[in-house]
Design goal:
The protein is an alpha+beta fold. The protein has a domain at 7-67: Factor Xa Inhibitor. The protein is built from three helices and five strands. The protein has a three-stranded antiparallel sheet with strand order 1-2-3. The longest helix is centred in the middle third of the chain and has 8 residues, at 54-61. It is elongated, with a radius of gyration of 34 Å.
């Protein structure tokens, strides 16, 4: 007999192109007039589910394989490996060198600002 996809899961959970599961965020059904537009917009696109819930999601969609890294022991049992946080590369800050100010040129004559002409008066 063919395994069928769980009908509730297929309505509520979508699979992304990278194999993650995306579900809708909470707080979008009612009482929206009391919420700010920012609060309403936060739940707009949904969120990727946690890796811990992956087995339930895959069961519902009848998908095989796990995203979590795993290694097998000698007797063939799967032993989960602890997830390691990615290493963040730190970039050394460049020390700003003080700029040398150039001496102003003394040979050039300084220009004085031109005086504005008075507006013409029309006599009547």
């Amino acid at each position: 007999m063919k395994a069928k996809t769980h009908s509730g899961t297929k309505k509520r959970v979508k699979i992304t192109a990278t194999g993650k599961f995306r579900t809708a965020k909470i707080g979008k059904r009612h009482l929206l007039q009391n919420k700010s537009s920012q609060a309403k917009g936060r739940g707009k696109y949904g969120a990727a589910t946690h890796v811990a819930n992956e087995r339930k999601m895959k069961w519902g969609h009848k998908v095989t394989g796990l995203r979590t890294p795993a290694k097998k022991t000698a007797d063939g049992k799967i032993e989960k490996v602890a997830r390691v946080a990615p290493k963040i590369k730190t970039v050394a800050k460049k020390v700003a060198t003080p700029k040398v100010q150039k001496a102003p040129k003394t040979t050039a004559a300084k220009k004085t600002p031109a005086k504005k002409a008075a507006p013409k008066k029309t006599g009547k």
